[in-house]
Design a protein that fits this description.
Order of helices and strands: EHHEHEEEEHEHEEEEHHHEEHH
Number of strands: 13
Number of domains: 2
Helix content: 10-25%
Structural class: alpha/beta
Distance between the termini: 63 Å
Number of helices: 10
CATH architecture of the largest domain: 3-Layer(aba) Sandwich
Oligomer: single chain
Radius of gyration: 23 Å
CATH class of the largest domain: Alpha Beta
């Protein structure tokens, strides 16, 4: 029988939200995914019973080469402060900076995975003045080179695999780990930010329940409105690389389906938009953040045509908190079939 695929999951500077998210994985759930793919969870800070000396003994065993480590999963940003010492985050009971432990383990692991945008790019923990000098594993915001060099690759000949999201979708995590365990994830399966293309080849815009409003530029004006949130409410779904509206959360949800604008949380630097997340900055009335692959001149021309052709039903419903005018129903009585 093939040896189990050993993974170790450590948490660094972050909220633990990605671990909470992964517990909502479906078809299969997280623990069944591990079993089905012959994956052995060596340790997880929330899911494992072992602690204290048992955990430190495991780390030592990996570092000394006595325990094989196939995949190292890091959740949360890496805290380099103060002054590059890493003393803002000491691994409990060891007296060692977490950044030193993590960097050493990346040399032992066949693959290294950044779980969530904090571990991938620095994320929320890096926002503002960043007093902890937080960064991602291999990226500091949009720029390659952070705790690990920009040219770093694992013994499995892959860079850090950035499963970005805040939190990351549970099935993005389970799918990626399962692919690694099967030997079915290659460099060609990663995008330019080393995120799995299984979800970043899509846009959040795909499958958005507000697409009809988007097509006619029938826009929401406040949070409770039904209309498209791109023009006024800060929605970045037309630019965000993720499949949130086709691979739904908990089987039925997404930010947009819950009435919240997409903030593009899979992107490097999403945490610092330079304005409110619920505001669309404009120049001469034109949104700065246009849809991916959409030239500005085309957007202006198409928007004008779309708004001129907007059905009355959509104009009314766009600025309402519920559907006030339903679509017309054609009947044979009207002379139509």
């Amino acid at each position: 029988m093939k040896e189990a695929f050993n993974i170790l999951w450590l948490q660094s500077g972050g909220c633990g939200g990605c671990s909470m998210s992964v517990l909502n994985a479906e078809q299969p759930d997280f623990f069944n995914m591990l079993q089905l793919n012959n994956i052995n969870m060596l340790w997880h800070p929330s899911f494992s019973e072992a602690s204290g000396e048992e955990f430190l003994s495991l780390i030592k065993s990996i570092e000394e080469g006595d325990t094989r480590l196939d995949a190292l999963c890091i959740e949360g940003s890496l805290m380099r402060g103060p002054n590059g010492t890493g003393h803002f985050h000491i691994l409990a009971g060891s007296g060692r900076p977490m950044i030193d432990v993590v960097e050493g383990l990346t040399k032992k692991a066949k693959y290294t995975i950044a779980v969530g945008s904090c571990a991938a790019f620095g994320g929320i923990t890096m926002s503002g003045p960043n007093p902890g000098d937080a960064c991602g594993l291999q990226y500091e915001g949009k720029y390659a080179g952070a705790l690990l060099d920009k040219n770093w690759s694992s013994s499995g000949e892959l860079p850090v695999i950035n499963i970005a999201g805040c939190p990351t979708h549970p099935n993005w995590v389970t799918e990626t780990i399962a692919q690694l365990a099967m030997g079915d994830l290659h460099s060609s399966d990663l995008d330019t930010y080393n995120r799995p293309r299984s979800y970043t080849d899509h846009l959040v815009h795909h499958g958005c329940p507000r697409n009809e409003y988007y097509e006619y530029k029938a826009s929401a004006e406040q949070a409770s409105d039904q209309g498209c949130m791109m023009e006024n409410m800060g929605c970045l779904g037309t630019q965000a690389h993720a499949d949130c509206n086709t691979r739904l959360w908990n089987g039925e949800g997404s930010c947009l389906r819950g009435g919240y604008a997409c903030i593009n949380c899979t992107a490097a630097g999403f945490e610092e938009p330079g304005h409110s997340f619920t505001q669309t900055p404009k120049i001469a009335g034109i949104p700065i953040g246009l849809p991916t692959d959409m030239p500005k001149a085309w957007f202006v021309a198409l928007s004008s045509l779309a708004k001129a052709a907007t059905p009355k039903r959509l104009k009314i419903n766009a600025t309402s908190d519920h559907i006030r005018v339903p679509p017309n129903q054609k009947t044979e009585k009207d002379g139509q079939s």
